[in-house]
Each structure stands twice: as structure tokens, then as C-alpha cells.
Amino acid sequence: MVLRDGRSGQWLRFEHPVRTYIVKNADDVIPALEDVQTAVEHQGLYAAGMIAYEAAPAFDPSLQVRQENDFPLLWFGLFDRIDRCTLFDQDVNPPQMDWQPSIAPSEYEQALREIKTQIYQGNTYQVNFTY
Length: 131
Description:
This protein is α+β, with helices and mostly antiparallel strands and 131 residues long. A hairpin with a 6-residue loop joins strand 1 and strand 2.
């Protein structure tokens, strides 16, 4: 796993976990996070991982999600070391892109109104709107 440290701007490589947590049941999310925190605080290990949006009911049972696949709700690895690495050559300039929206401003505003309506009606609590 490679992650960027937002404070230092460095890339961090995590390899060969000493322990992993793969959670597929919402009831096991909080206990797994507590174990990870204990390992970091008391055993000097480093943690890297992810929590899926579908884990939301573990934090607030009133939130409803659809989990239609076998994707883990939580995956964390515990590591005894971190390696700093260079992921990109800092001297390379990225290509310039001429981004153009694929929808008109009025279509975008209408889509946002519909999203807000759906949230207000309780049909969803989050929407990732992209175009």
C-alpha cells in the first residue's frame, strides 16, 4: 500500500503487514478499529487501511446502506515499519488538460436540486455526483 502523507508531502510505502483486519459485518467494525488503535498506541505499530461507505451503520444504526457484494466494510493492515519512497519524478511537469464540462450549467443545477430533494426526503444520505 502506498499513501501520501498530507503533512510532509512524502509518499509512504507499507509492506508485509504483521496483522490484517478484514471486516464484513457492521457489528465488527468498531471492535476492529479499537484493536487497531490499541496496536498503534501500545505496540508501536503503524496502521494503514480503509473503511467503506457501507460501514456507516456501524457508527450510526439509523443509517441504511445497500451492501450487495462481498467487499469488506473495513480493511486495515498493521505494519512494524514505513518506508518513504518517491512515487513521481518531481521535475516532470504534468500535461496540461483542456477540461470541458459534459453538461450545461442548468443541467448541473437541476441535478443538484434533485439530489438535495432526495436527501431531504430521506432516500439517501450521501451522493457522489460527477459528470
